[in-house]
Amino acid sequence: MDDEIRKDIFDREVIIAASRSKRPDAFRARSEKKHQCPFCPGNEKMTEKTILALPDEKNWQVRVFPNKFPVLDSPLQKWTTTGGMYKRCTPFGKHEIVVETRDHLKEYEDMDKGNLELALVALKMRYEELMKKDGINYVTIFKNKGADAGASLEHTHTQIIASSMFPEVISKEMDDGEAFFKKEKECGHCITIREELKEKKRIVAKNKHWLCITPFASVWPYQVRFLPREHYSELSEMGYDHLKSLARIYKEVFGMFAALFKDLPYNMMYHNFPRSELWHFRIELFPRLVKHAGFEFFGLNVNIKPPEQAARELRTALQ
Question: I need a labelling partner for 154 at 20 to 30 A (CA). Which of 86, 184, 267, 317 fits?
Answer without folding.
Answer: 317
